[in-house]
């Protein structure tokens, strides 16, 4: 299944995350990124940092994913994570659209990200949202060590396209 079924999309909502959600995000990190999760200190630092926008996706009052972005004149997707039980149901697309909306609203010109070279699903998600590959960083990820594909979306070009929305 490539998108949310109608009953899911009607129930999927966003909730802004803040410093009161450090334990929640740390637990999600351990579950979703078990091989290399952020520590509680790292999560706290991210949630407290200026220019950050973190959100959770909830389905029937259950958190099914979360995402965050650092926003300035350019923006960097910091993370998008979806619980295994919710994958393939459009949650990642929903979260990415929110990050791009926030970046546009804040006036960011471009959005960058790094993704594991082996994560074909995520690379496809980003490409469908208008990201293009711009490079590769050798040995960027650890546990396991793996290259990152660097991608960029030009928000100026996206916003200039009539009828285009994410």
Q: Which features would summarize this protein structure in a list?
A:
166 residues, alpha+beta, Aminopeptidase, globular
What does this structure look like?
With 166 residues, the protein is an alpha+beta fold. The protein is built from 6 helices and 7 strands; from the N terminus they run αβααβββαβαββα. A hairpin with a 2-residue loop joins strand 2 and strand 3. Helix 2 (22-32) crosses helix 3 (40-48).
Compact overview of the structure:
The chain is α+β, with helices and mostly antiparallel strands and 166 residues long.
Structural class: alpha+beta
Helix content: 25-40%
Beta-strand level of the residues, as a percent range? 25-35%
Give the uncertain stretches in residue-range form.
Answer: 1-6, 159-166
What letter string, H or E per element, gives the SSE order? Answer: HEHHEEEHEHEEH
- Tell me the CATH architecture: 3-Layer(aba) Sandwich
Distance between the termini: 19 Å
Fold-level CATH name: Aminopeptidase
Beta strand count:
7
Instruction: Figure out the total of helices.
Output: 6
Main sheet properties: 7 strands, mixed
Outline type: globular
Estimate nothing, just give the exact number of structural domains: 1
Order of strands, main sheet, comes to 1-2-3-4-5-7-6
């Amino acid at each position: 299944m490539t998108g949310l079924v109608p009953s899911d999309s009607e129930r999927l909502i966003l909730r802004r995350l803040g410093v009161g959600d450090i334990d929640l995000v740390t637990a999600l990190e351990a579950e979703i990124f078990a091989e290399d999760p952020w520590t509680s200190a790292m999560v706290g630092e991210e949630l407290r940092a200026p220019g950050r926008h973190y959100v959770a996706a909830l389905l029937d009052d259950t958190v099914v994913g979360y995402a965050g972005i650092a926003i300035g004149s350019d923006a960097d997707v910091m993370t998008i994570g979806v619980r295994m039980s919710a994958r393939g149901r459009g949650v990642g697309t929903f979260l990415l659209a929110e990050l791009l909306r926030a970046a546009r609203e804040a006036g960011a010109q471009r959005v960058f990200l790094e993704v594991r070279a082996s994560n074909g699903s995520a690379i496809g998600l980003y490409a469908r949202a208008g990201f293009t590959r711009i490079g590769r960083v050798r040995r960027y990820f650890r546990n396991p060590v793996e290259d990152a594909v660097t991608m960029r979306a030009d928000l100026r070009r996206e916003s200039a396209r009539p009828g285009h929305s994410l």
